[in-house]
Amino acid sequence: MSGLKTFRKVSHVIFDMDGVLLDTEIVYKNAIQSIASRYGKVYTPHIMGKVIGTPERESSRIAVQEMELPISVEDFQTEFRNRAHNLFKTTVQLMPGAALLVKHLHSNKIPIAVATSSSQDSFNLKTAHHQNIFQLFDHIVCGGSDPDVKAGKPNPDIFLVCASRFSDNPNAEKCLVFEDAPNGVTAAVRAGMQVIMLPDENVPEELQREAHITISSLEEAPLQLFGLPPLQT
């Protein structure tokens, strides 16, 4: 665990989904690399750092542009979606510590929500086998299809919308965010929230520096530093 030394106390917690609650980033990585390989291109960690956490359309645009693929963004997005969604039809695993942390916060009556760049349809597909966990959240914001989310990460919209939908409409500074993607971290910081980052192993260190703390697993979540009940592992 690494990060700064002093933190604000919070009252609400917001989770990204892919790569934080669900182990889906490997699916996205394999889907993009399989398309890139057809054109002799490589999906590098540098490009991955730009793609992770963005809406599907933006992910497709970045991939096509950065790898100079000779196909349209629309064609890439269609193939990417088909490949990824076929893989999601098999059980997507929870990230280590996800169930423990979510149940802990819920049992301690800490308001919790999900802010994902996925569309509602994609969310439903990915979470089909984990309804027992996702039903514990106060609400879910699917940025890929929610009309109130005008711009995707790294813009702060999704986190501000998510915070506003808690019943007590907390100030942004009262919200703690769990993210794995540099774009998501930037979005949360721009929203005025503190961020705990679980960086993908392929995300370069220089793209992790904006986070307030980095951890390698949700089992390490230092809740007590933010005035929340400490996690019992």
Automatic annotation (TrEMBL):
SUPFAM superfamilies: HAD-like. Pfam families: HAD_2 (PF13419). GO terms for molecular function: phosphatase activity. PANTHER family: 2-DEOXYGLUCOSE-6-PHOSPHATE PHOSPHATASE 2 (PTHR18901), PSEUDOURIDINE-5'-PHOSPHATASE (PTHR18901:SF38). This is Pseudouridine-5'-phosphatase. It comes from Phaedon cochleariae (Mustard beetle).
